[in-house]
Amino acid sequence: MLKPCVRLILISQLLLLSTQYNRKLDNYTLTILPDLPPEHLKRFLNTFPKIRTECEQIQECQNILKTFNNISQVQGNEISSAAKEGQESGVCWGHEINCTRELRFQTPSCSGDHTGWVQSKEAQINTFYYQADFGYIQQQINELLLMCEPKFLTDSSLECNKYLKFCRGRNLLFDFRNLAGRAERIRYHMDVLNEGGIKGYCRFNRSLLTEELSHMGALQSWSPELRNFVEADESIIENETICDMVITTPTFLMKIDASYNMYHHFCDFFNLFATLFVNQTHPSAFDLNTQVIIWETYPYDSPFAVTFKAFSKNPVWTLNQVKGQRICFRNVVLPLLPRMIFGLYYNTPLIHGCEKSGLFRAFSEFILHRLRIPFHPPRRKIRITFLARRTKYRRVLNEDELIAQLASDEEYIVKRISFERGLNFLEQLTITRNTDILIGVHGAGLTHLLFLPDWAGVFELYNCDDPNCYRDLARLRGVHYITWEKRHLVYPQDEGHHPEGGAHAKFTNYSFDGKEFARLVSKLANYVRNHKKYNEYIKNASPPREPKDKEEL
Ligand SMILES: *[C@@H]1O[C@H](CO)[C@@H](O)[C@H](O)[C@H]1NC(C)=O
Ligand SMILES: *[C@@H]1O[C@H](CO)[C@@H](O)[C@H](O)[C@H]1NC(C)=O
Ligand SMILES: *[C@@H]1O[C@H](CO)[C@@H](O)[C@H](O)[C@H]1NC(C)=O
Ligand SMILES: *[C@@H]1O[C@H](CO)[C@@H](O)[C@H](O)[C@H]1NC(C)=O
Ligand SMILES: *[C@@H]1O[C@H](CO)[C@@H](O)[C@H](O)[C@H]1NC(C)=O
Ligand SMILES: *[C@@H]1O[C@H](CO)[C@@H](O)[C@H](O)[C@H]1NC(C)=O
Ligand SMILES: *[C@@H]1O[C@H](CO)[C@@H](O)[C@H](O)[C@H]1NC(C)=O
């Protein structure tokens, strides 16, 4: 055991190291290493050992590796048994066929009962792993089928998985000429392409593709597009006369859900992240030199648009940039979609009793790292963020009273914020990453829970008769979730007015009983205080009998 003061130094060292690591990556991003958090980079290098060898031959690259080894040691991330047993050198993500449980990024925790669902605890954990963790990625990869087979390297190719939820192709021609003449704006359309609208010079197995066309929905699969695939008579790559534009940058075509709603738009981003793993067969898998083309002719506009910078350094395009032309893609990926049947995370049926998906934690860390969101270690006072809605519905009528009550408690640092106004998205993420308890009424702002630290809790004040949405999202991310328990202590303003008529709990405002509110927050605060990772920071940061920290005053 180290003495408290030594630990204190370690913590500041850690923060310094993190900053250095980011700066070095920024400077060096990177001829060899992708821009990833340390725990992710380690796994990347195990997937592509050649890169590690290359890196070791360059002094500066070597230094980066040393720095991140130090960070992950000090940070003691949940590398769990692998790290303890000194097996770190073999760590993997979890979708790889030979990745053992001890070496995975994280294993779900299933403390809830499994009876009535599956036969055994083991089966329960596995079910969750294949529903919502890296097991899900493994399944997507296992399902891949070669739809159009190249004879030579310069030919086209098309690979897709079951129901065409993910595809990737080389040297494919997409014909957008008819789009130029269309009067209506395109979004969720299934008729963007005409018959023969996608061409590849390769041996096409039509019956194989036809078998997978059954999920014919705009956001469910790529069936509406790929039913138009035909074999080309001549080579596409060698023939510039048949392409109006050749895009050599690896491209993601994206059918997105809703750009203004955080819950739905992050479902788009989440699936793009998952796609990086399904397509991870080459070290360029985490490259930022990619092109995103959104499958719409509405101009792309979103308060969360900056999130695309985690995936691509190039400006986002829409179909407007390609309409009227025949586009030849050297490398094109049709990513997993936001509303797949049994997809993630919209309406996902999850097995009872399990939580903590490594895939979700990886997503959270990836976004926070790539967007350079600063991290401040927690303190003894619990940092509470209260999401104030500035919308027409689901306002908390006695918000002032509830917040004043929390603020009067010495144990808490309370912030009230409205994500609808003022703060840009990076500032919002900075608050979330440094919050221990997030409180808010049912609403898309609660999607921020994805970016809370591992020890955090979320309090959905009232779920408005939609109990699964954020409870499940919290489960997936692995943060603790509570909601209002006593119905007679919440007071709706009226019965609610659905815009299409009828009473509806989502369309009114609420007051909450103050005493009950305080009880629930204190319950959550206790959960945080007892969390192992939170405690590691507290022990390190606040040695006993020291004068009060400045920041706490
Ligand atoms: C980053 O690069 C700049 C310009 O090449 C250089 O001046 C600076 O020292 C570098 N910083 C680090 C941390 O290596
Ligand atoms: C990593 O930690 C070791 C031991 O604490 C130290 O000697 C070394 O200088 C550190 N390396 C870097 C690159 O920070
Ligand atoms: C899995 O197999 C790959 C390729 O054979 C190998 O490089 C890697 O070390 C293996 N990983 C584990 C955890 O055994
Ligand atoms: C197409 O795929 C099916 C199913 O895998 C297979 O049975 C058939 O032989 C393939 N046809 C050709 C022409 O390769
Ligand atoms: C290119 O396409 C044109 C028009 O279809 C065709 O006449 C020509 O033979 C093709 N060239 C090659 C090299 O395939
Ligand atoms: C998908 O994987 C292929 C093959 O490894 C790679 O060349 C391509 O760049 C990747 N596509 C994207 C969009 O990242
Ligand atoms: C809820 O509060 C908002 C803002 O004060 C108000 O515009 C709205 O009419 C209220 N809703 C109901 C059902 O009273």
From TrEMBL:
Its signal peptide is 1-24
Tell me where in this chain the Glycosyltransferase 61 catalytic domain is found.
Answer: 352-458
What catalytic reaction does the record list? L-threonyl-[protein] + UDP-N-acetyl-alpha-D-glucosamine = 3-O-(N-acetyl-beta-D-glucosaminyl)-L-threonyl-[protein] + UDP + H(+); L-seryl-[protein] + UDP-N-acetyl-alpha-D-glucosamine = 3-O-(N-acetyl-beta-D-glucosaminyl)-L-seryl-[protein] + UDP + H(+)
Q: Which UniProt keywords apply?
A: Endoplasmic reticulum, Glycoprotein, Glycosyltransferase, Signal, Transferase
EC number of this enzyme? 2.4.1.255
One matching Pfam family = Glyco_transf_61
Could you tell me one molecular function GO term of this UniProt entry?
protein O-acetylglucosaminyltransferase activity
Q: Which enzyme class? A: transferase
Q: What are its GO cellular component terms?
A: endoplasmic reticulum lumen
Protein name as it appears in the record: EGF domain-specific O-linked N-acetylglucosamine transferase
Give the organism, scientific name. Glossina fuscipes
Gene for this chain: LOC119640448
